[in-house]
Amino acid sequence: MQPIDELADDDLVALPFDGYLTTISSSSSSSHDEDEANLKLRLCVIRNQQYIYPLIRHEDDVETDLFLDPRCIEKQICLKDILQWWNGSTINESNNNDGKVMAELQYYGVGWYGQRPVPSLGGGPGYGAEADEVWSIDEDVLEQLLSEDGVDLPVIDVGMAHGEKARGGALF
After folding, report:
1. Which of 52, 72, 73, 172 is the most buried (most CB within 10 A)?
2. Per-residue pLDDT for 134 more than 80?
3. Among 10, 141, 12, which residue's Cα sits nearest to residue 2?
4. Are the C-beta atoms of 101 and 93 separated by less than 8 Å?
5. How far apart are alpha carbons 2 and 8 in whole angstroms?
6. Highest mean pLDDT: which range of 84-88, 125-129, 137-141
7. d(CA 2, CA 90)
8. Residue 116 class from Cβ within 10 Å (0-12 exposed, 13-18 middle, 19+ buried)?
């Protein structure tokens, strides 16, 4: 556990990110099953002074390399907003968490930040080619995330079209 006020850029934490997005995007009442799904923790990285971004893995890539979820890059969500939602949430109260307040987060250390060039027809970094931001973690941290703690870390198949602007990429 890590106190909230001690987090910095590139710190990895588990948050109910998807539940927060679902709640702010819909005003309808949800079922108990949906509430439990909303509580599932997702691995996120802290960036740019307390903004959070969820991470993913690429299907045919190094397991310990994590990338920003392209479906959420445009969203600028502050850590404090998710924590205020969680601490005041009726979901939290209805699931018998004994009034648990998220004052400390599941902390997974600092991800080693780097950039990986996107395959293109010429040039590399410094020649105008794009690069994906990547955070690397240890294998034991990945195992703890997935098996022991049950943190969600989606795997997305970006395929051959990854990085092709002309076709809009594999995900869009």
Report:
1. 52
2. yes
3. 12
4. no
5. 11
6. 137-141
7. 24
8. middle
